[in-house]
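Sanity check record (used in CI):
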Amino acid sequence: MVKNRISPDSPERFQSRFFLLVLLTSTVFFILLVRLWYLQVIKGDHFRAMAEENRFREFIIKSPRGKILDRNGQILVESRPSFNLYLRPEDVPDLEKTLKSLSPLLGVPLEKLKEKVRQAPPYRSLLLKRDVSRESVAYIEEHLLDLPGVMLDVEALRSYRHGPMAAHLLGYLGEITERQLQQLRNRSNNHYFLGEFIGQYGLEMKYEGYLRGIHGARQVEVDALGRELALVGVKDTYPGSDLQLTLDLEIQQMAETLLGDRTGAIIVMDPRDGAILALAGKPSYNPNQFAAGIPGEKWLALLKDPKKPLQNRAIQGQYPPASVFKIVVAAAALEEGVITPNTLLGCPAYYFFGNRAYRNWKKENQGPQNLTRALATSCDTYFYQVAVRLGVDKIGYYAKGFGLGKPTGFDPMEKGGLVPTSEWKRRVRGEPWYPGETVSLGIGQGPYLITPLQQAIMISAIANGGKIYKPYVVRKIVTPEGKVVYEHKPELISQAPVKAETLEAIRKGLWAVVNESGGTGGRARIDELGVAGKTGTAQVVRLDRAGNRIPGSQYRDHSWFVSYAPFEDPQLAVVIFVENSGVGGSTFAPIAKEIFLKYFNIPKPPPPVRQNIQAAQTAPAGNPNGEH
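Expected output for Penicillin-binding protein 2:
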């Protein structure tokens, strides 16, 4: 029996296939309709926004950065116009020829320019070089018709009017890093972008938010290839605010000049409130070289320079306080009743403790001395005896009370120094404090480390009645409209733990240092003011067994001179520190004198007659041995 078979061409087979085709087509159209509904209804707003973003582009217009002024309104830092050179490769008929023409003008190797072009996104203006020289700008402007696709644009770059002067304080700008960009985007409403220059150090960094201002923008319509079609709108910039400092330009310039090529720091401070009038540090650097982006090789050279020009020695240099520390030891001894101002102690050439002899800076026996005379002559053996009577912990207590051994709060990058105690030694070195170690503390040697700024705090406290003020340099911040958005008020941190009569006794001794016969700071004397001060010389390494110094400039002694004036109404404190000077602190007393004369507008006395010049250079008045 033969079964019925459906022919391939039969209506039934055709209808079956047609049904499957319709079902498949309907399914595809249904999926497309669902997808279209999803894109247009559910995700419509999202893709509409993306389309607008692709159609419109926003280009940043950088805001002018605020100025930095001294206390009298003199400009220290401002912004200057500079020319940047851009290239649009798509508009250049002969790219090779154009790049060859630009290479010598820009001082950029041809291969480096080609590499920039290769890495650039299409239909975008490519920055070839920032801050093009005026000569190159003039040539390019003259030949623009021969350089299609080449454009010049004006940008404000930072200008430090006085070059290296106060560079450590003012700081510099640098290109923002990826890490900084992320941090700033998370905590700031202001827009930051890669390639932007922001404050990287000093006041430029600390007050970035005030100085920067608010960037504007230029919105343009572009085609599908990113080419500009029309200007849609402009958002205006808002300039940054100005910083007015307590710095005095003339005093700062004088301090820098007097410091010369020496390595060290000079700080001039108002002891009445902690305002800084000058903060000079050497060696320094020129922050202008950072304005347009410092080349890698120059940055590396600064980092590797053995003189460490990037280090702000005024707040980051940590040194033994030397004989200046005798001020603190004297205060501790008076407060603890170890001595009175009239207590007489011997000042021999050597002080013997245990099996060791501790030398005085003078080789002869100077006889019994009271506190005033011991400070005036800077008798080491007097203060050895006082230190042993006090002990390390009492000395440390008063040192900390005068602001030593911890950051002052002036700058987040400052160092704290070190005030040793018996507990510190047990914790850090795992050893007890031995009585013999206390002897050297009397003259500021041993583990003690302080910064020049801490010395300024200490001598200011002696001058102002024991008040420890937080040092400051920004007096006020002013918006472009002239509104004061910040004004500093003196910040009293603490009161030194000493009585008024203790300070009076010490001030009497510091006056004698400068004004009495035999005083080690006689070269700072100004009769009209009554300068008070203290010399100090920090021994970098111990002498050898024969009492000789180790050769080498890095082993030479450091020198200190701290002072204030006028004696009856202190208005100015001056601290001078010179690293590895190899001479006594008395050598730099004349530098303080020059600053006092300038500030108080006192005519400079005539130079000594010729026959006395050599004597004046070899030994200060009343101090034939040149105190160390």
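Confidence is low (pLDDT under 50) at residues 611-626. If this sentence no longer matches the regenerated tokens, the check is flagged for review.
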